[in-house]
Write a structure and sequence with these properties.
The chain is built from four helices and five strands; from the N terminus they run βαβββαβαα. The chain is an alpha+beta fold. It has one domain (about 5-110). Strands 1-4-3-5-2 form a five-stranded antiparallel beta sheet, sandwiched between helices. β3 (about 40-45) and β4 (about 50-55) form a beta hairpin. α3 (about 80-85) runs antiparallel to α4 (about 100-110).
């Protein structure tokens, strides 16, 4: 596992307040598709001392976070795939400052 979005705790609240295109969803929501081309799933796991906001970039990754034996509290969000890929560093543009890449994605959303 390995692509995380940074920010202060509580991370779900931070992402929702900072990026208005994020929405809260349930993992069993009808039509929730981890591989959707436009929307990405972010799972915010409360680990006690800190929150971890993970990009569920594949079906396998999503299944790990929805395993019934993992009883940690979680919130499920969706956000624009381009934005989530940049915030999680899943997509890195070679020879470009990450802030520049983020600003380009944010401009495209508006």
């Amino acid at each position: 596992m390995g692509y995380y979005l940074q920010g202060p705790d509580p991370k779900a609240d931070y992402l929702l307040a900072t990026y208005p295109d994020f929405q809260v969803v349930t993992p069993s929501a009808a039509g929730l598709n981890v591989m959707d081309e436009d929307r990405a799933v972010v799972v915010v796991v409360q680990n006690g001392m800190f929150d971890a906001a993970a990009f569920a970039f594949s079906e396998g990754e999503f299944e790990e976070f929805t395993d019934p034996s993992d009883t940690r509290p979680k919130r499920f969000l969706t956000g624009p795939r381009d934005l989530v890929e940049v915030l999680s560093r899943y997509r890195v543009v070679e020879d470009e400052d990450p802030t520049v890449t983020l600003n380009k994605v944010l401009e495209a959303l508006n």
